[in-house]
Specification:
Distance between the termini: 24 Å
Protein name: Outer membrane beta-barrel protein
Number of strands: 12
Strand content: over 45%
Domain Outer membrane protein beta-barrel: 76-216
Shape: elongated
Organism: Mucilaginibacter calamicampi
CATH architecture: Beta Barrel
Number of domains: 1
InterPro entries: Beta-barrel_OMP_2 (IPR025665)
Helix content: under 10%
Structural class: mainly beta
Radius of gyration: 22 Å
Keywords: Signal
CATH topology: Porin
Length: 243
C-alpha cells in the first residue's frame, strides 16, 4: 500500500514539473505568513514490537492450577493498515525552521498472533481502537527550488484512545480473553517530506516513522498477556498535507 502512495507522489511531482512556470508560484501565501493552517489525510501501517519473557514458551495455568494452553512456539505481530484525518497548524520560527502541531484522529487495528505446539490452539488477538494523536514537531526546510522545497521533521507526540471496540472480557472463557494496551502513551517520530507549491495552496507529501516510549501492554493475568514482557508500537505514516 505504501508503494502505491509513493507512485502517486511521483506522478504528482512529474505532473507539477510539466506544468511548472518559469516564475515560482505563490502557494496560497502560506510561507509568507508567520502562522498558517491546513488539513491532512494519512495512510497508517503499524505493528507491535514484542519483548517476550524468558519463560514465554511454557504452558499457561490459571490460579486454580488448570492448564489453559499448551507450549507456545511463536508470538508475532504483523503490519496492519489504518487511516487518519487531521489538521495542521504551523508557526514560522525562521526562514528554514517551523514549529508544527498536527492533531489527528487515527483509525487503526493491530494484532498479535500466538502459535502453539498444537495448531488448533493458535489465535490472533486484535486490538481495535480509535486514537487521538497530538504531535508537536519541528520542521527543518531547505531553500526553495522553483516550486519545491524538501524538509525534515522530528518531534514528540501523545496518543490517547477514545474507546476500544472490544474492552470487556470479564465473563469470557480463559481462551477468549483479550490482549489489552494502555489508553495513553508517548512516542517520538521522524520523517521527510516535500512542499509542492500550487497557485492557491501548498501540498506536502510526507512519510514518517514513530516508536512508542516504554511499555504499552496492560498487564493482566491471562494466557495472552502472561508470556509478554513488554509491547512497543512501531508506526509508519504516509500523509498528504494541504495548506
Amino acid at each position: 500500500m505504501i508503494k502505491k502512495y509513493l507512485v502517486l507522489t511521483g506522478l504528482l511531482l512529474c505532473s507539477r514539473a510539466l506544468l511548472a512556470q518559469s516564475v515560482p508560484v505563490w502557494g496560497g501565501g502560506a510561507d509568507q505568513k508567520d502562522f498558517s493552517a491546513g488539513f491532512s489525510f494519512s495512510y497508517v501501517s503499524s505493528y507491535y514490537k514484542i519483548d517476550r519473557k524468558p519463560e514465554w514458551r511454557q504452558p499457561y495455568f490459571d490460579a486454580s492450577g488448570t492448564k489453559i494452553t499448551n507450549e507456545l512456539t511463536n508470538i508475532t505481530s504483523e503490519n496492519a493498515p489504518g487511516f487518519a484525518v487531521g489538521f495542521l497548524g504551523r508557526y514560522r520560527l525562521t526562514d528554514h525552521l517551523e514549529a508544527r502541531l498536527t492533531p489527528a484522529l487515527i483509525f487503526a487495528d493491530r494484532s498479535v498472533t500466538y502459535q502453539y505446539v498444537t495448531p488448533d490452539q493458535d489465535q490472533t488477538k486484535s486490538i481495535r481502537a480509535t486514537l487521538v494523536d497530538l504531535p508537536l514537531q519541528l520542521k527543518l526546510k531547505s531553500d526553495r527550488l522553483g516550486d519545491y522545497r524538501a524538509y525534515l521533521i522530528g518531534g514528540l507526540k501523545y496518543s490517547q484512545a477514545l474507546g476500544n471496540k472490544e474492552n470487556s472480557d470479564v465473563n469470557a472463557a480463559p481462551t477468549a480473553k483479550l490482549l489489552k494496551t494502555i489508553n495513553g502513551y508517548g512516542s517520538y517520530e521522524v520523517g521527510v517530506g516535500m512542499d509542492i507549491y500550487f497557485e492557491f495552496f501548498k501540498l506536502s507529501p510526507e512519510i514518517k516513522i514513530s516508536n512508542s516510549f516504554g511499555n504499552v501492554l496492560l498487564r493482566e493475568n491471562n494466557a495472552f498477556a502472561a508470556p509478554i514482557n513488554s509491547l512497543s508500537l512501531h508506526t509508519v505514516m504516509f500523509s498528504l498535507h494541504f495548506e
